[in-house]
Fold this sequence. Notes:
This is Chorismate mutase. One of its GO terms (biological process) is chorismate metabolic process. It comes from Nocardia terrae. Keywords: Coiled coil, Isomerase. Residues 94-125 are annotated as: Disordered. By secondary structure, this protein is mostly helical. It has one domain (8-99): Up-down Bundle (Chorismate Mutase Domain, subunit A), CATH 1.20.59.10. It is built from four helices and two strands. The protein has helices at 8-39, 43-47, 49-66, 70-99, and strands at residues 110-114, 120-124. A two-stranded antiparallel ribbon has the order 1-2. A hairpin with a 5-residue loop joins strand 1 (110-114) and strand 2. The longest helix is centred in the first third of the chain and has 32 residues, at 8-39. The radius of gyration is 18 Å and the shape is elongated.
Amino acid sequence: xxxxxxxxxxxxxxxxxxxxxxxxxxxxxxxxxxxxxxxxxxxxxxxxxxxxxxxxxxxxxxxxxxxxxxxxxxxxxxxxxxxxxxxxxxxxxxxxxxxxxxxxxxxxxxxxxxxxxxxxxxxxx
Length: 125
């Protein structure tokens, strides 16, 4: 078992190490999301509200088993899923424009924009 941190600096270093791992895992998830987007034909398939609820419920169950507050897991998963749905919608729209002869390529980088509801929207930079 890992010993308890002995200072705020050590706590922060451990959090930073976890954040590095989370970023790597999110990049892996993004690759899979982009692959899944290829199989989806319309916006409803991208949004898939039933699947969202299934994934959120599974995250809550896993959180409980791991000692994470289920409400924290739900909030994180809903934000993450929302951001990935927006990425898929943007890529779907880009593919649609490309298939109509405009030849648009998917944006290489994206940024996050919030709206008044707290939703996160990916936008090309």
